């Protein structure tokens, strides 16, 4: 038996319908205990991420308060938009130092989503701006030859190829499809951090892990059950 959920019920603007078995409804609604802060730096798809965590039984804080970062057991850094503006917002809100304390010193898990992952790199072509510098990578725009077939931005569903095991990808089958929406991607200098790749004419890192630092180029909050699995894996770390 399938549970039908419409776009009006889910707020899923990228897919008209979501189907989930009753067994999966039970799985994803098991209570989970963790203090999770979703960083609000003015560029994130915050409501969709929060709704996904609600399904998992988590009530996260959506905040730009440094104290909520200090209290968090897990941190999610979403983002949609311009790299340079997002970094400027993090600086304006005085969030960089508390993030570095939580992630680099206290070693708390953080998950960057789309632009949130890109902000973890050293710098970006977008806005010619410096990033957080946690990942040895630069952010570059897609350099597409076949512009008739491959439009930029990259919008829609695409597969991931798992490179190595990671707790973030537990119970995620190789070849799973996720929802992407981006014009830029990571140019990785340290391939050991890449846990999955995808191809959009060119190959690019779609999931990364460096110790307690995790990032995904796709949107798990828009990727139905397999996306919920990613978020569940992160919360359970």
Give your account of this protein's structure.
With 237 residues, this protein is an alpha/beta fold. The protein has eight helices and 16 strands. The strands form four sheets. Strands 4-3-5-6-16-15-14-11 form an eight-stranded mixed sheet. A four-stranded mixed sheet has the order 8-7-9-13, with helices on one face. Strands 1-2 form a two-stranded antiparallel sheet. The longest helix is centred in the last third of the chain and has 12 residues. The chain starts with a strand and ends with a helix. The relative contact order is 0.16. The N terminus is likely disordered.
Structural shape:
globular
Helix fraction by DSSP (H/I, runs of at least 4): 25-40%
Helix count, DSSP H or I runs of 4 or more residues: 8
Strand line-up across the major sheet: 4-3-5-6-16-15-14-11
% residues in beta strands = 25-35%
Low-confidence stretches: 1-27
Task: Spell out the key features of this protein.
237 residues; 16 strands; 31% strand; globular
Q: Could you provide a short overview of the structure?
A:
This protein has 237 residues and is α/β, with parallel strands linked by helices. It is 27% helix and 31% strand.
SSE layout and pairings?
Blueprint: E1 2-6, H1 7-10, E2 17-21, H2 22-28, E3 36-39, H3 46-55, E4 61-63, H4 66-71, E5 74-77, H5 83-92, H6 96-105, E6 110-113, H7 115-118, E7 123-124, E8 129-130, E9 137-141, E10 154-159, E11 161-162, E12 177-182, E13 184-188, E14 194-200, E15 202-210, E16 213-216, H8 224-235
Parallel strand pairs: 3-4, 3-5, 5-6, 6-16, 7-9
Antiparallel strand pairs: 1-2, 7-8, 9-13, 10-12, 11-14, 14-15, 15-16
